[in-house]
Amino acid sequence: MINSSDLKLTAVSTDIKRIGADALVLGVVKGTDGPQLVASPFSPKLTESLQATLALLNATGAADELTRLPATDESKATFLAFVGLGAFEEATITEEALRRGAGAATRQLAGNATVIFALPTATVAQTGAVAEGIAIAAYDFSNHRSTPAKKLPLSEGIIATAASADKDLPAAMKRAAVLGRAVRATRDLVNTAPNVLFPESFATAVKDSVKGLPLKVTVLDDKKLEKDGYGGLIGVGRGSDRGPRLVKVEYSPAKAAKHLALVGKGITFDTGGISIKPAAGMHAMKNDMAGAATVHQAIVAISELGLPIKVTAWLCLAENMPGGGSTRPGDVITMFGGKTVEVLNTDAEGRLVMADGLVAASAEKPDAIIDVATLTGAQVVALGTRTAGIMGDDTLRDAVVAAAERAGETTWAMPIPEELRPSLDSQVADLANIGERMGGMMTAAAFLDEFVGEADGVKIPWAHMDIAGPAFNEGAPYGYTHKNATGASVRTLVALAEDMVSAK
Fold first, then answer.
1. Active-site residue among 351, 397, 421, 491?
2. Is the Cβ–Cβ distance between 344 and 303 less than 8 Å?
3. Does the active-site annotation cover 277?
4. Measured in whole angstroms, how far is the alpha carbon of residue 94 from the centre of its chain?
5. Chain centroid, CA 211 distance in Å
6. 467: nearest Cα among 353, 356, 391, 368
7. pLDDT block averages, 10 residues each, the chain of length 504
8. Which of 174, 207, 277, 386 is catalytic?
9. Residue 4: its pLDDT value, please?
10. What is the secondary structure of 138-167 as a DSSP string?
11. What's the pTM value of the predicted model, to 2 decimals?
C-alpha cells in the first residue's frame, strides 16, 4: 500500500555546462531593482541578459514563482526554469528558503524526468536542504486512479554544489533521500481512501513496509485489546465493523543510550460517532490517522539512518462510526491502566485512543514520550493551518520546537494552563473527555497529561504535538507541500531523535 515512487538524487560540481537534462533550475530573489539571479553558473553578460528578460516578463523573485525560458548556448538543458526564493540578500538565503524553492520547482516541473538544480549551495547543509526539498516535492498520489497521472514527478534531481567534494556530503544526501521517502510514504497513507485503509489494513501496511529493516512489529487486535483492558480503543471502535488495532513498532539498536517513545493517533475515519459531524467536508476525515502515519514513518526513517537511539512507536488505530454498538454520550469507559472516563462527546475520540497509547508507552519507562495527533479544531483556530501546537513539559516541549525549527517545520510552544484541568472533572467518573471549550487545544492536552506515567517516582518527560492543521492542506500547493496530505512533523521527530543522540 505504501508505494511512493523512489527518486535518484546526485550532487555534482558547479560546472554544469556539459550535463544534459530536461530543465535547469536557477534561483531568483526579490532585488531592490527587480529580480536578481543568484549563484548564476553563466557568464556575467548572459546573467545580465537573463535578469533583464525576467524583469520584462514581470517575474519578481517571490516564493513559489516559476518562470520558464528557452535554453541558452551555455547549458545543455532543454529549457531554463527560474524559481523565486523570496526577499533575501544572496548571502542570507536560509536553508528553508532553499528547501522550499527546490520543492516549488520540483512540484511545478512535474512531467520532466531529469532536472538540474543550480541554486546557492556553497555548503553541505545548503546542498542537503535543496536535496530534501526535491525529495519531499517529487510526489504524486495515483493509487486509486485507473491510469497514471499525465505528469509524473521527476525521477532524477541533479544538484550543482560547491561542496561536491566534501566528505560529509554523502551522509547529507542520504538523509535527504530518507526523509523524502518517509514524508512521501506518510502522504500515501493519509491520502488513501478510508474504505481501503482501516485499522486492520493499516496494521498490514506497517508490517509490509518494514521488511528488511531492523524493526519489530507487534499487532494487538480487537480481541486482545478487549481482554487486556484497552477501553479507549475499544470504546471508540465499537461502532465500526472493522475492529481497532494497537500497533507497536520497535527499533532497538545495540548501542542505544536513550529511549524515545512515539504515540500516534490513528482514527482511519472520523464521523464523530453518535455526536456526528456535519456532512460538509467529512470526506477529509480520512486524514485523522495522520499522527499514526507520522510516527510510523519517523521510526522507519530513524532506523534507515541508523541512529543510535531506541525508539518505540505506538499506533492507536480505530474507526469512529455511528453503528449500533457505538459508545454513547454519557457512557463511562475504563481506560488501559484503570482510569475511568465519562464520554460527553463521542467526537472527542482521539484523546481516548491516545490515552491508551500513552499508558502503554509509559509502562516501558522511556526517557521521553512524544504524541502526535490531529486532535482539535481549536488548534487550527489558534494557530492556523501551517503551525503545529506543541504542549507538555517545558523542557521537552521547547526541544521539540527547536528540532522543528532545524527541520524547517513551523511550530509554536503553547502552555497547558492549570485552570483548564478542573473543567475535565466528571460527576460520575475520574474525568470527562471534554472540558472548557475556549482554549480547547490546551484542554485536550490537559486530558492527555493525565495518562502520562512515572519512572522511578518522577513523571516521564512528555510533549504533545497537535497537527490538525498542518497535516492536511486543503488549500493551494506551496513550496514542497502538495494539496491534501503533507507529511508534516516526520522531519521534526527525526531531528528530535538526532538531538537526543547528540546530547548524550
1. 351
2. no
3. yes
4. 21
5. 22
6. 391
7. 68 87 96 90 94 96 96 93 92 94 98 96 97 97 87 94 96 98 98 98 98 98 98 98 98 96 98 96 97 98 98 98 96 98 98 98 98 98 98 98 98 98 98 97 98 97 98 97 98 98 86
8. 277
9. 46
10. -----TT-SS--SSPPPSEEEEE-TTTT-T
11. 0.97
DSSP 380: H
User: Shortest CA distance to 187 belongs to which of 496, 483, 400?
Assistant: 483
Distance CA 484, CA 471 (A): 8
Residue 415, amino acid: P
DSSP 339-355: -EEE-S-TT--HHHHHH
∠ CA 468-471-475, nearest 5°, is: 100
Say how far apart CA 179 and CA 268 lie, in whole Å: 24
Residue that has been written with the C-alpha cell 492536511 in this structure:
472
Q: Which residues of 77-93 are buried (b: 16+ CB within 10 A; e: fewer)?
A: bebbbbbbbbebeeeeb
Task: Write out the H or E segment, with its range, that includes residue 392.
Answer: strand 388-392
Whether 258 sits among the annotated catalytic residues: the reply is: no
What pLDDT does residue 3 have? 42
Looking only at the bridges linking them, the beta strands covering 8-12 and 20-31 are unpaired
For residue 400, the one-letter residue type is V
SS3 29: strand
- For residue 212, the Cα-to-chain-centroid distance in whole angstroms is 23
Sign of CA dihedral 383, 389, 391, 396: negative
Residues 6+ apart with CB under 8 A from 396: 368, 370, 461, 462, 463
